[in-house]
Amino acid sequence: MSPNLETFGRRANQTELSALLVMESKENRSESFHKLDKIVGEMLVRSLQGEQVATITQNHLKVNTVAIHGLSDDSQSFLTANYGLEHQQSCGAWFLPESINLCVGILSLPWAFREHNRFAMGITLEERGKVLLNSSAEAVFIWAVLEPLFDALFLPFELRGNLSGTLSCEEMLQRWDAIDTFYQTLGFNVADELAVMRWGGGWHKLRAAEQLQAKQQLLEALAQQVHPQMASCYRAFRVRELINGYYKKAKRDGQVKRKQALTKALAPTLAGFFGGDWLAFLAYLGEKPHPEEQIITALPETRPFVGGVSRVTEVAALQGIPAEEIERIAAAYWQQPSGQSPVEQRVAVLKDYWTVFDQIHARQAVGMQPLWGLVEDYRFLNFNEATQSPYQPQLYQTFLPNDLLNKVEQLWGTVMLVKFPDKIVSELFPHELMAETFGAAIKFWHGCALTAWFLCEGPYSRTDMAGLAHYYRREIAALENFQTPINSKIFDELIKAEAQLGSPEPINSSQRSTPITAGGVSLTIQTSVGSRRSGFEKLRDIITAYRRAWAEQFLDSYFRARWKTEITEAGRSYHLLLHERGGRPPTLKQFAKSAAIATNHWFGGDVSSLYGAIREKTPVQPQYNRRLPNSKVRFAQAVYEAMPPYSADLISEESRNANYRILRLKEELANLSLRYIQLEEALGRAPEPAELGLEKLQEYSQILNQDLNMVWAMYTGSIESARN
To answer: Over the chain, what is the mean pLDDT?
Structure first.
């Protein structure tokens, strides 16, 4: 017999599950699980006895965190030491997801039945949310160990609750077989209590009160039989699945690489019972690592290279090379005649933009138009009617100098699409992309100024000064994370200044007089659309002073944090993919999704420049074949006007509704024409209907009562007509 057939893992895979714990004890493989089994056993008992063992909470930034209640200091220390994301990754567990959706409420289902009776299942399922795994060790522990336990334990309640009527007969029977196996594994004997809940057990004949009583009887039976030692049976059940998965993929010598054996479904088991440590699992099996196995305990540090002419003098002095030679090298490296790196170019323009932005807001005064629209907010063009909103699309075209407008169009006018990473295509809304690149700072300071304006000049404001910090809490938190915080004193000063504003005065939109007697008496009706208060300049000057103080102290470090964070994250993703592929560089398509943000914010859609910034060899030199007309707005407007209107009469309500829908669809399809040209640049040909998306076109054809092919021909004809 081959020696590898005598390993613990081989024998464990061939024995009955009930014998696995005995084998572990005899061969000294259970000691490392004692503390874990004790914690899980305590959690199981406490849950079935009706305690609320865990909760999920959301902070003011709408970030979810989880907490396990009632843990001893010793247990808490154990979880922190073994389930923190950094610890797991230091053992090679880079396969763990960044975030997961946790249904924490399921851990406390008996408590919910005690507190909320027949509403228990609904309340339990509401206690859920997306949680970052790096937020706490408890998050990893619940995801990897506890949630699978209680999902399986309380599956009968889901089958007779939220899953009722959603599964076929075959699927229901499979679920009930799984329930029987799991309950038998843990040692529960509740066949009588389960009988009426089973498929074909007469559940539908029970009244609501009787169904509730049946569920409560099952919970009572589980609570009476539960004991802490069941945790060891549960752990053996989960580990046996991992063992079975391993040997399904292992070769005759008992070896297989982690990436081949560890499926997505089995990843929580490795994280939950072996700390994410593949080598620890192999030691448990008694198998040797695959000779090509690579366990990386730390990803290489990404040190972004974004230097250009800005460091010529420094580099020349350090290297003893003439400055002209360094300039030539920088120009060749970045393929820019100036020698400036793409990041340097964009930071310089963002600084110029900030200077103009600051000056415009500082001189804003009563009687001028609102500045909502100075920063691009939307990726949509409106053609239906002249807007009466205070928001003025593309207001920046009026206020920004032409040279700055041209630089924004040039530097943010191209992007990389994730599906076509080897091409550079036109960006449809460069100013919105520039604002996105600028990040939280521009959104916060622009929002402060607009709040002050609309609070004073009306017609309304989204918040007042007391609510300003909460309204922009995400931006404030982002700036704190970059170590460029907002001085909190600004909010106190603005609240005090708001209290000194003038009394609200109604803003009247119209006035109409109607004679009501022969004696010349008339009735005058005025319509109010909001109110205004004097004193805007007080708020403006406070914001300007704090904005300029923030910029003087932090603007340079803020921009550095912006590009460094995004480029470093792209580099980290590259090295993670490199690790997952066993040291082979990821393909461009594999890397594209992770690379998109940094590529489009700082490199104009040229992913080869991002490769240069993270010091990796690029697999491609993307090309740009512009087909988008110079005036996107006029082009889309022409497409809108070329499409036929709805020709039915507008007398009936049905016709008016159809006409409104067709106008909205025409507007959406006119915007979609920009995407059509963008795809044309990526594909090198006109896109097919399915590539562009059929939903809007199908709705358009239904309203017009025309064949989809006819509508597509009309639509593409409108695009070509507008282009020409």
So the answer is: 89
